[in-house]
Write a structure and sequence with these properties.
This protein has 179 residues and is α/β, with parallel strands linked by helices.
């Protein structure tokens, strides 16, 4: 990535919290997410603003997260929980809904803890360990159907095929620009 690209990303990250606040004031809902297999296009197509959450390298956040999640859980999940405990991250503070792809049981546990202690509705997307087997793909498609149904209920509307197509174009454009 060039310095120009990194500068543009930095500027956007500095602007985004104020933009999210304005959009929330106008009635939009922010869906914070973490994991690796989150279908942002679906979240976006249902009218939510997807925002990836996370940070790294903070022993303080690990300590804060350890107040509610066992120290037997990984540092990453304790840091994520610590973000909600600390209440300083502008992105975390803008979340109306939390979406987590459960690539591991520890992320599932972090979502349960965040929902319980911080009262943020949490939706889970189960992820198979192996996408290449027919059983893995079948499992993922069933989990995806359940995930979409839960988001539709929260959004108060059904997933529209045309809106999904448009969201896919937007997110493919973002991925292309980042490459």
């Amino acid at each position: 990535m060039s310095l120009r690209t990194l500068s543009k990303i930095t500027e956007a990250l500095q602007r985004r919290p104020a933009e999210l606040a304005a959009e929330r004031a106008a009635g939009a809902k922010v869906a914070g997410w973490f994991g690796y297999n989150m279908p942002e296009e679906i979240v976006h197509a249902l009218g939510f603003i997807p925002v990836r959450l996370g940070t790294g390298g903070s022993e303080r956040l690990v300590e804060l997260g350890s107040r509610h999640i066992s120290t037997k859980n990984c540092v990453f999940t304790r840091q994520l929980t610590g973000l909600f405990e600390e209440k300083k991250d502008p992105y975390v503070n803008s979340v109306d809904l939390l979406a987590i792809d459960t690539t591991c049981l520890q992320l599932f546990r972090a979502g349960e803890v965040i929902e319980h202690y911080y009262k943020i509705k949490t939706v889970f997307l189960g992820v198979p360990r192996n996408f290449t087997t027919p059983e893995g793909r079948e499992y993922f498609f069933r989990e995806l159907e359940s995930f979409v149904a839960e988001l539709e209920q929260i959004a108060g509307r059904k997933l529209d095929t045309e809106q999904l197509r448009q969201s896919i174009e937007i997110y493919n454009g973002i991925r292309h620009a980042l490459q």
